[in-house]
From TrEMBL:
This protein's encoding gene: fabH1
Protein name (database record): 3-oxoacyl-ACP synthase
MF term (GO), any: 3-oxoacyl-[acyl-carrier-protein] synthase activity
A GO BP entry: secondary metabolite biosynthetic process
Domain of life according to the entry: Bacteria
Matches recorded under PANTHER family: 3-OXOACYL-[ACYL-CARRIER-PROTEIN] SYNTHASE 3, BETA-KETOACYL-[ACYL-CARRIER-PROTEIN] SYNTHASE III
Keywords noted in UniProt: Acyltransferase, Transferase
Domain Beta-ketoacyl-[acyl-carrier-protein] synthase III N-terminal span(s) in chain numbering: 129-192
InterPro entries (UniProt xref): ACP_syn_III_C, ACP_syn_III_N, Thiolase-like
Domain Beta-ketoacyl-[acyl-carrier-protein] synthase III C-terminal as annotated: residue spans: 256-350
Residues of the signal peptide: none
Length: 352
């Protein structure tokens, strides 16, 4: 252990999409019936539950690998390294490059290879590959990079999380209001034993949980009947997350050298404000404690849910002092955690 972030970067798209953007959408239920509530009421309830007021969309001429490259370049500048010294590029995403106005995913060559090309890396032994692991993909990429370094297979890794979920949403599904675009990245290198990644845990639930998030047809049967979009069973995901994520976080702490009172921050996937708060409250209740004030920073209000990108984006924002009441200081212990399609869960403990 002791592998740490020497560079952190993000790319937040400049296109701001408020809830008013959805005023003229024709929302339907799963059976194709028009939802009786007006769109203003739907947007109000969305904000109440998820906290989302705005989200960011990529520019029309950008794709996921473009966003990933910009975040990677930011992390590389922050680390002040020579790109030729990178041993692995691990790119977490779920839908590949989807060009604006289309729904077809393009994943060949890998998005990691596309970023390597954009970075003009000549070293053939810089290995570039993608991770498809649902929303926890970036954390899983960090865990894999950590393993490569511990095994002596790498000394420096670039881990990217990027997504353009705005390209794979069904405009007739009100859940489309949740999703956003963005990218984050880190450089990971060996360091002192008492800093960096100290413990980690991953889990996959693929029985009845497998279909909680899936690709499905539009709720409008007349609208591209053969095209599929991101879909979810929100209530089932909520119940699953509240049941499984706190236990995973507890196991990670209990298997480490840390105690619950050592934790200074929890950086959790920005999926849904109420769900994330409920997860963290339940996590603390497992130790018969109340959730501390300012333990869980949230940026979903303005940035929406950009899947694999939410955690590294948030990390960079905190380190940049962009969030009021949320700082990370030397010696702080932080839990990173995520849950998403698979259904997958992962978490790691990091000391700064």
């Amino acid at each position: 252990m002791g592998n740490h972030f020497t560079g952190v970067g993000n790319y937040i798209p400049t296109k701001t999409i408020s809830n008013l953007f959805f005023d003229n959408h024709h929302f339907l239920d799963e059976k194709g019936n028009t939802i009786l509530q007006d769109n203003a009421t739907i947007a109000f309830k969305l904000k109440q539950i998820t906290g989302i007021e705005e989200r960011r969309y990529a520019k029309n001429n950008q794709v996921t690998s473009d966003l990933g490259y910009l975040a990677a370049a930011s992390a590389i500048r922050n680390a002040k390294i020579d790109v030729e010294t990178i041993d692995y590029i691990i790119f977490a995403h779920n839908f590949g490059d989807v060009r604006y106005g289309t729904i077809q995913s393009d994943m060949v060559p890998s998005l990691a290879a596309r970023v390597k090309h954009k970075l003009e890396i000549q070293n053939p032994y810089c290995v570039a590959y993608d991770v498809v692991f649902g929303c926890p993909g970036w954390i899983e990429g960090v865990i894999q990079a950590n393993a490569f370094i511990n095994a002596g297979l790498a000394k420096r890794c670039l881990v990217i999380g990027a997504e353009t979920l705005s390209r794979v949403v069904d405009r007739h599904d009100r859940d489309s209001m949740i999703y956003a675009d963005g990218a984050g990245a880190v450089i990971i290198e060996p360091g002192e034993i008492n800093i960096g990644i100290q413990a980690h845990l991953s889990a996959s639930y693929a029985n009845e949980e497998k279909e909680f998030l899936y690709f499905g047809k539009s709720y409008n049967s007349d609208h591209c009947p053969d095209t599929k979009y991101i879909k979810m069973h929100g209530r089932k995901i909520y119940e699953f997350a509240l049941s499984k994520v706190p236990l995973a976080m507890k196991k990670c702490i209990d298997d480490s050298l840390y105690k619950i009172d050592d934790i200074n921050k929890i950086i959790i996937h920005q999926a849904n404000e109420k769900m994330d708060e409920a997860i963290v409250k339940r996590f603390y209740r497992l130790y018969d404690k109340n959730m501390p004030k300012d333990i869980m920073p949230m940026v979903i209000h303005k940035l929406g849910n950009s899947s694999v990108a939410t955690v590294p984006i948030l990390l960079k924002m905190i380190l940049n002092d962009e969030l009021e009441n949320h700082q990370i200081n030397e010696g702080d212990v932080v839990i990173f955690a995520s849950v998403g399609a698979g259904m997958n869960i992962n978490t790691f403990i990091y000391q700064f």
